[in-house]
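Example record

The entry below shows one chain as it appears in the dataset: sequence first, then structure tokens.
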Amino acid sequence: MLERVLRGLPVTLASLVGLVAFLWPFWAPATQGAADAPAHAQDAPLVTALIVGLCVLVALADRTQMLSSKSVALLGVLCAINAALRLVSNFFPMPGGFSLVFVLIILVGYVFGTRMGFLMGAFSLLTSALVTGGVGPWLPFQMIASAWVGMSAGWLSNLKMSNVKFQTGVLAAFGLAWGLVFGAVMNLYFWPFVSGGQDQYYQSGLGLAEALKRYATFYTVTSLWWDIARAIGNAVLLVVLGPALIKTLQRFRRRLNF
């Protein structure tokens, strides 16, 4: 029991670091509503370093699974594939927020579990950002949000879904939901830094109910339709590619003795 808790501690710490990074601007009045304040320009490098360091600890926390040369190589190959898919998306833009990278993150988490899913999400976005030149203050927030996608996909493995159609439907619904949630979470990294009409922007001293109301308006106006494209894309790709990719990943899982 203690060993399991210790193995899960780095994931918990990394998630807490990400959560604090997302939320601290709401309690920092100097940044709130400052239209000329670059969102997280000062703290993003530190947050990135902390998350990468904690991801390394996640890999070291379970020597029987995560530190074998084969499993590390598999993670590297999968992250490289996602980086290539994101590069393709840059050359051939998809509608709205549709992205090819989330399917593998979800399926790796589902097949290999929460820790592998967490690493797949974080390192996929880091690798693809380096390849595509998408490095900026938003990067650590993309990494942690994608890591949460992979980690939560690992929870689905507890459902023990033997029926392929049911499994595909659940994963498609999961991808659909995260397509919207990912956008809603990512908006939080810059929302406290921008200013505008009082009906959709954050101001210091707002109560929770009013802040949620304004954010709902902001999200609906600026992000919802963009995220719907991502959500539908996730669901369609998981329906079309999910069964075959799950079989392939499960074959690797058996060979790597996960």
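Notes for this example: The mean pLDDT is 86. DSSP finds nine helices and no strands in the chain.
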